[in-house]
Task: structure prediction
Amino acid sequence: MIKVKNLTFSYSKDKRALHGLDFTVEEGEIFGFLGPNGSGKSTTQKILTGILKGHSGEVSLFGQDISVAHSREFLAKIGVLFEFPYLYANLSAVDNLNYFSSFYPREQRRDVEELLELLEFKTDFLRKPVSSYSKGMRQRVSMARALLNSPKLLFLDEPTSGLDPSGAVLFRNIIEQERKKGTTVFVTTHNMMDADLLCDRVAFISNGSLVALDTPKHLKEENSNHQVAIEYLYQGQRETKTIETRALDGGLPFEHDEIISIHSQEPTLEDVFIQYTGRGLN
Amino acid sequence: MWKNFCTLFKKDCRMLVSGKFLLMATGFLILYTAYVNLGYVRFMEKEIYNVYLYDPEGIQINVSPLVQSVPTREALDAALLEDTGGVGLSVSSGDVQVVLYEATKQIDRHRADYALSLLHPSPSRIPEQIGTNTPEQKARKEITCELLFFELSAVGFLGIAAVLFKEKSMGVIRVHATLPFQKNLFVISKLAVFLLSDLCYAVLLTLVNVGLSEGTAVLPAVLIQTAILSLVMALTGLLCALLLKDFRQFTLAYLLIAVFAASPVFLSANTAVKFDWIGFHPFYHFYMGLKDAYFGMPIMPGDYTISGFAIMILFFSVQLAFRKEMGKEG
Result:
């Protein structure tokens, strides 16, 4: 679906934002693009969505070179959720969505009210101006905007930003449903939980270069010290031991009366990210 | 393409209505009409200076009925104290002496000559009148032209920038970058909305203040000039709104345009003040084009060519700025 080879981009002569990125995103895949602020993720997304021009290297989408791909036909096949909910504040959710939807071919358009219902949007706010909405409600309308043309390729920038935990779960479910329909999803996020739960593969970008690309599971396994922490009771005393996982092959290698808990010492995706880049995401 | 244009046009109309722009324009139309009919025309009918004559011996016998006689020198001084713009003529010593409160050299000379001319009114001094406009028609056309120019260059300019700043602050311009339509339409629809509203405004302002028959006669030429100025100002407003960071910065640019660009034009076009460089001032040509349209004077074809060229340059500059805005960070 997306093929990127040796992608470089400079905003000015002495300000190179991307240093030869290489990656591919398969059809129907949820691909996470993770990096701290200023690392080049937005620049990459803007190049892929056709907003930024003037890159070098090879970029193809839907099997076509990007220069050919960014026609109106291409834009009709993609959906973009921006980091902030960009909407007309003086119009209602329905009016906003009807407006944006009218630019797409009729056969592609989804029913606006159905979409909002899917996103559990409060019905009494349907006809009220966006200026009266909370951040979470605006994010739901923005997500509906990204989905209203039944996109084949969905670009999501911080999809769960501004949502409460149940809203975040709902969004992750909706993204999963889209993938089941065959939609390819390119997610840019700071949220490691989203990346871990949603993405088939993740790429770490730091200072304009890709430093790692794999499934979240592999990345965590590769960087794991393969240890478990065991909390147990022995002769009335509460104790904790950290042992190699291999040591468990023959049962617990120490005397104990009762096991209280066993915790894997596998790193989180954020720990792995820090190991690769030397800095956190925020 | 047409369908997309209609969608954008409808949305821009809603933005205009929600921004209270039409309400403001209607308010200005009422205000201008009241000013023209209740103030300006009546004011122009008044004599420019009152002339007071103190002639105790009655030497001046053929004075104009516009001269007001006073019985004493004290009464003359009192009249001038109350009406400092007036001119006093004292013939108490045999010679005519002009008495007035000092203004500027040229105006004082004009006031004195005018007052003296009223002492000996003669039919041979009545100038030959050319042109078909009555003084009232002339006054109406002049003030309507000035008000329309002000409306287009200042108020309309502010209106379009306000709409675009609103869209810019909401970030929706960036969303349009990912929508499947020809991006030129985004700018063209805004121009169309403002052009249409300016043309309607020009029709109403002209018909109400110049008069139905006179107004209809000059309207085609006025509408052409209105369209040119409207497009230039709308594109300038769009460019400023796209290039400047916020509305505060825009206000400064607006002040620069309103004060430093418009004032010398009004001065040069309507008074005896003539700046050597005014011919290089683009607003002066736009204003004179509008004035010529109101007074039925022919417009040079070269002026249309230059205007068309200016509109094209501005349009391409706006397109560049618009594409830059679409690519900005969120």
Summary: The longest strand of chain B covers residues 51-54. Chain B has a mean pLDDT of 85. The CA atoms of residues 74 and 306 of chain B lie 62 Å apart.
